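Hey L., structure's done. Input below.
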Amino acid sequence: MNEIHFDFEAFLTIASALTLICWIIGKVKYKGQEPTEKSFMTSVISFGYSFFPVFFFVLVVRTFVFEPFRIPSSSMMPTLLTGDFIYVNKFSYGLKMPVTHDTIIEIGHPERGDVVVFRFPPNQKDDYIKRVIGLPGDDIYYDTRSKIAYVNGEPVKQSIDGQYEGFIDDLQERSRIIQKTEFLNEQGHKMLTVNGVGNQPFRFTKLTVPEGHYFVMGDNRDNSSDSRVWGLVPERNLVGKAKFIWMHWRIPNFFEGLKRIGTKII
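Output:
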């Protein structure tokens, strides 16, 4: 989901460690005062001393509190659109160490219907966003004909809203897109299917979710690479829970997109 593959988390961790060393030297050797002698090394120490609080604050907030992401694809339409910028709560599923991602404190676990950001299992440099369909221990079956998911033998309730009237991806025809409401929980959420798209060669349509893993799908069911294609998401890969849209930036329909700012993600 993240278009930038530079490991900003690792950069922040290293920058915080290096500037911490400079901060300690500044405190111990120079008593927190500006060095009187001028050299390359004292300039580095002064820089690190000044910027350590900044790097450390950003690292703590980004690691434990929240992180912004940009949506680059249409796989979560109509819930999320290309060009949406979202706020992700990093402590919804526990506090984790930066870089290693080991859980420090367990706070909670995903529930059915949660929209989650996670590190893509086949390539953990990439961040993906999908909706949780199956929890550990669930028996999952996805009927490719009816496009209905079954959880523990029970079909997930759907209702047809009608033809989709919202934003569309450049490659899709609105006349073929049907909007539905799916009820993984009491609240329900919107999803899309495309008329004329029949059985797809998914690898995983029937399985039991093992402990520590989750089965996820995109809301744009006929245009999503998800657990049906590449398998399950390990709990260790979870980044956080998507909460709301804080910005939308895409030139087509720009002003209409601005109305999405502040929209809660359900």
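The two ends are 18 Å apart (CA to CA). Residues 196 and 243 are 33 Å apart (CA to CA).

-- N.
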